[in-house]
Input
Amino acid sequence: MTGENRERTTRFRPRGLPASVAMLSAVLAVSYLVLAPFAYRLQGGSGLSAAAVAAIVCLVSAIGGMLLSQCLGGPNHAIAGVLSGMMLRMGLPLAVCMIVYLQSGALAEAGFVFYVLAFYLVTLAIDTWMATGRAVGAGPTSEDL
Output
């Protein structure tokens, strides 16, 4: 990949943890606004609440995964950082889904599990896109070889 192509593909990727959190929050907020009319039409106010809680759970787990990956990552512990971040990113929404489903409350009836799935896919896609930008920026270029 030439320098010009690399610059074009990484131009919109955030640099640093605060910028990554801000971008992830903004994309998740836009996703909520897109999903909110469907949630309201299907379940009314409880659908909006279930979608909001699902978005918050996915956001918290993604931010926690990024923090954990960054704290435990590094040249000597890169695999440990990635795996621990992935475990938190998957484990928290899965645990919350299980608790909500087993309690069979208003959130479960409003489709909470489906909203978690939708928001999880959004956070996974954005987080993967940002992580590949960090990996591309950190790796050797063809000019270095």
Remarks:
- The two ends are 13 Å apart (CA to CA).
- The chain has one domain: 15-134.
